[in-house]
From TrEMBL:
UniProt-recorded Gene Ontology molecular function terms: rRNA binding; structural constituent of ribosome
Location of region: Disordered: 45-77
Job of this protein: One of the primary rRNA binding proteins, this protein initially binds near the 5'-end of the 23S rRNA. It is important during the early stages of 50S assembly. It makes multiple contacts with different domains of the 23S rRNA in the assembled 50S subunit and ribosome.
InterPro entries named among the record's database cross-references: Ribosomal_uL4, Ribosomal_uL4-like, Ribosomal_uL4_dom_sf
Cellular compartments per GO CC: ribonucleoprotein complex; ribosome
PANTHER family: 50S RIBOSOMAL PROTEIN L4, LARGE RIBOSOMAL SUBUNIT PROTEIN UL4M
Family annotation (HAMAP family): Ribosomal_uL4_B (MF_01328_B)
Subunit and partners: Part of the 50S ribosomal subunit.
Protein encoded by which gene: rplD
Name of the protein described by the UniProt record: Large ribosomal subunit protein uL4
Length: 209
């Protein structure tokens, strides 16, 4: 599949690159996509929720009133959950939400995500670009030139580029990653996926192992 290569100003360079059909033109496997996105979202959960139960509350252990003759219910401890400041009944405890997923399923999910985006014509291939210094204004101009300034965008670099990354950090709708940081969720969550030329080889080799 041949795709035109654009420069950072959004103009056609006259060159084309071949997007591998094994990555960008497969029949999407929706169940694999579901499993991978589910795992990604589960791993975002810290799982450190905790409330103190009766045994963990600091307080006196004396019987707070006599057993009979008060006209009210019996009570043996100020740490009882029925009293204000008492322990929590069946409260949340720390939990690990991590899920296991086969590597082949994860690769299939990412191929499916790329194929979905390609079917939507939401993938752009751009020449590698760089800035002399981190400048959000220059990065915004690149997005504007590509016609994706007001869209959620995912820019995929071949190698880490600190100036490009720092230039994008203040923009909520745009995210810059290198090809090894790609996830199915990030690909699908973006309205437009911008692939730098240097990232293509790494993407194909990682997903065709």
């Amino acid at each position: 599949m041949k795709v035109a290569v654009l420069d950072s100003k959004g103009k056609d360079t006259g060159r084309k690159v071949d997007l591998s059909d094994s990555v960008f033109a497969i029949e999407p496997n929706k169940h694999a996509v579901y499993l991978d996105v589910k795992q990604y979202l589960a791993h975002q959960r810290q799982g450190n929720h905790k409330s103190k139960e009766r045994a963990e509350i600091a307080g006196s252990t004396r019987k707070i009133k006599k057993q009979k003759g008060t006209g009210t219910a019996r009570a043996g401890s100020i740490k009882s959950p029925v009293f204000r400041g008492g322990g929590r009944i069946f409260g949340p405890r720390p939990k690990d939400y991590k899920q296991k997923l086969n590597k082949n399923v994860k690769r299939l999910a990412r191929k499916s995500a790329f194929s979905i985006k390609q079917n939507e014509n939401a993938i752009l291939v751009v020449e590698d670009f760089n800035f002399d210094a981190p400048k959000t204004k220059e990065f915004t101009q690149v997005l504007k030139s590509l016609g994706i300034e007001n869209k959620k965008s995912l820019i995929v670099l071949g190698d880490s580029n600190n100036n490009v990354y720092l230039s994008s950090r203040n923009l909520k709708r745009s995210e810059v990653v290198i090809n090894s940081e790609l996830s199915t969720y990030k690909i699908l969550n973006a309205s437009s996926v911008v692939l730098c030329e240097s990232a293509l080889e790494g993407i194909v080799s990682n997903l065709n192992k």
